[in-house]
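Late entry, written up from scratch paper. The run itself happened at the end of the previous shift, but nothing got recorded in the book at the time, so transcribing now.
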Amino acid sequence: QVQLVESGGGLVQAGGSLRLSCAASGRTFNNYYMAWFRQAPGKERDFVTAISRSGVSTFYADSVKGRFTISRDNSKNTVALQILTLKPEDTAVYYCAASPRASASNYRVLRLYDYWGQGTQVTVSS
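Output as recorded:
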């Protein structure tokens, strides 16, 4: 069982930056692929980025490559998302998620993520 708590969202002007954090409970954090998904109003929850168990491999949606950076600290059971050059279309609720089953071939698959945080709102004004 893993409990996830996100923080760091807020209202930012376009071009600004934010750092989202996700704190995980449990002693087996490094058994999980970690990911961030986001959901804009009226839209489906979409994959944003994922990181492998060791943190060596990272993966990004095309729309965020070069602007978003995911990282994890297995000693602190945390995963972070650094967001640069925010755009209005980045406005969404951002969710941290954990999967014991994800791999480099299927990290985008939402249904593989068994544990979810409550979400943190990111709003980008133009």
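The mean pLDDT is 97.
(Scratch paper discarded after transcription.)
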